[in-house]
User: Fold this.
Amino acid sequence: MRGSRSAASPGCATTPRVTEHGALLDGLRRELGVDAVLTDPGDRASYETDLLKTRTGRALAVVRPRDTAGVATTVRRCAEIGLPIVPQGGNTGFCQGATPPDDGRAIVLSLERLRAIRSVDPVGSTLVAEAGVTLAEARAAADRRGLQLAIQHGGLSSTVGGNVSTNAGGSNVLRYGMARAQILGLEVVLADGEIWDGLAPLAKDNAGTDLKQFFIGTEGTLGIVTAATLRLFPAARFSATALVAVRSVEDALALLARLRSEAGEALTAAELIPRAGLDLYFAHAGIRHEPFGGVYPWQVLVELASSSRHFNLDAALEEAVGSALEAGEVTDAVQARSDGQRAALWALREGLASAQVATPGNLKNDTAVPIAAIPQFIARATAAVAEIAPAAVPIPFGHLGDGNIHFNVNPPRGADGHAFKAHWPALVTAIDGVATAFGGSIAAEHGLGRTKVAAAARLKSGLDLDLMRRLKRTLDPIGRLNPGVMLTPDDRGRD
Ligand SMILES: Cc1cc2nc3c(=O)[nH]c(=O)nc-3n(C[C@H](O)[C@H](O)[C@H](O)COP(=O)(O)OP(=O)(O)OC[C@H]3O[C@@H](n4cnc5c(N)ncnc54)[C@H](O)[C@@H]3O)c2cc1C
Assistant:
């Protein structure tokens, strides 16, 4: 019995599939070029593991078209035989949304070769970039015209498509808003391979549903972004930057309120940095350049910026921080007096993020709470972590002005990072629970990916999930675009 079953089932069940897949890949090689289809395990490897090396999946192949037509061909061919597609940009996301499942049935559709900056319009202040253009390249293209792209964060090798699909944030969101606010138009390949051209650079268009919104922040589950029209701003050539030490998170919020009231819209950044974060950065960088004479529990990196030379930003910042010192909200401050000093202060903030990426076992969270709740959120989440892993090192840091405090946790000093991962599920549940108890979010800027799908299914309202499912069913009826991301695989859009 056993012998006959095993002889029959592989032959009947797998041969047609293998043939079908082989024919698909051969067809794609013919249509897109041989180098567009990677099947060798060595060639696939870097696309199958996420940036943080927390998970490795397996793809049937990695397909790398050169243009929108090639993306459309790939999607159409995959749809014909019901093959799942995992879109991938720079693979710098933190939630495994671009990592394929383990079963080897999906293709990774890499947008990395859609690399053209189609146009920069200095009068309309817009830039049209293809999905695979990196954030660094897009920002540099704007900069060459005296303009700035306000999507700004440490993941410089991330792509335009990835930033659109995750609705990325960064350190200047309190002034410019998230990626969504920078997107005037999109070009998208839909689930059946049709190309939707919505690239018109219009700041105003109320002629019906704003269709591009469906594809922003939906992590490649509703369509494949192939190009974006991005809003540009005059380059903020003038800035004033200070690192300010405070005794408590409450004092950090008092400083934020003071800066908002005194500097108005010139305030572009207010980044919270805990002492543990500075220590981690110093250890990682192998240098110890203490910014202050003393050691303080919290620091806030603040920046004012403007494109106009008619404002004295340094004086405005000095006065605002000076009045905070007089009011006792601030204990110490250093203000940058040169671009070099400004870069050194930002290196503390950006270096802290990179040091965590490089620390084995560092647990990343992307929590947000209403701004006024930040002090209580940090206090309660710290207590919750201490109950689960008493020697672990909380590193709550980030975007004070947006309520987006990444409540990250480092393994105890000297501990095995890999072993520390055993605590991750309990820690994440506890920290997410504290955030949601304050009406917060578990995914402020990085998305749900694969890692937070179960938590979202537990924490989001039934109606929220139902609306997401209805949208999925409408735009991806056969549920082949990034299944298992954002919604659980069972929610992939089928009736
Ligand atoms: C040091 C460092 C600092 C960072 N700081 C920040 C920060 O401050 N703020 C922030 O928001 N992020 C930050 N990130 C995270 C990351 O850079 C962003 O999430 C970024 O938007 C991901 O872009 P990507 O091209 O790497 O996308 P990927 O990681 O390749 O993909 C992310 C998701 O988008 C989907 N996707 C990618 N491209 C497309 C496409 N063309 N069409 C449809 N779906 C697509 C993928 O399937 C996946 O679900 C940081 C990363 C690093 C390494």
Notes: Residues 51, 86-94, 97-98, 111, 131, 153-155, 158-159, 161-163, 165-166, 168-170, 219-220, 224-225, 353-354, 357, 445-446, 449, 482, 485 surround flavin-adenine dinucleotide (CB under 6 Å). Residues 244 and 439 are 29 Å apart (CA to CA). The longest strand covers residues 224-234.
